[in-house]
Structure to design on (136 residues):
């Protein structure tokens, strides 16, 4: 009986791990999921703070890169100060953003976002329904 219980517990914890380490959003209405995630904590000792910088790509399309930046350890509304997206060599950055970071600690970064991005050529892109849950 205890072997069955241990087996069930280990299966349920494996299932929950599949629900993390992603960034997903709709780019001009088309849902994309980024599942190759790199997280860096960048310290600025002279200024007295650190940033968390997330770089994400898609296993199905490496030409799409999404970068999120915010101050490390800070949670709440509009904490993400940088959103950058590259799509097949075209670079976009945020003109406006709306974010809510609910976890931002060493090891976990979680929240939601939406924004409007602009390219150097003047093209715009709308990102809606963005969410991320990253364990690092």
């Amino acid at each position: 009986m205890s072997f069955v219980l241990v087996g069930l517990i280990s299966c349920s914890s494996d299932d929950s791990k599949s629900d993390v380490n992603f960034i997903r959003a709709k780019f001009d209405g088309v849902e994309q999921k980024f599942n190759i995630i790199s997280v860096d904590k960048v310290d600025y000792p002279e200024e007295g703070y650190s940033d968390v910088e997330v770089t994400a790509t898609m296993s199905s399309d490496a030409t799409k890169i999404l970068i999120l930046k915010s101050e490390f350890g800070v949670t709440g509304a509009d904490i993400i100060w940088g959103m950058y997206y590259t799509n097949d060599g075209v670079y976009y950055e945020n003109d406006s953003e709306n974010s809510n970071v609910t976890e931002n600690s060493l090891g976990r970064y979680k929240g939601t976002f939406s924004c409007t991005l602009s390219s150097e050529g003047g093209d715009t892109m709308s990102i809606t329904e963005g969410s991320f849950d990253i364990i690092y």
Observations:
- The first strand starts at residue 22 and ends at 27.
- The chain has one domain: 20-135.
- The radius of gyration is 17 Å.
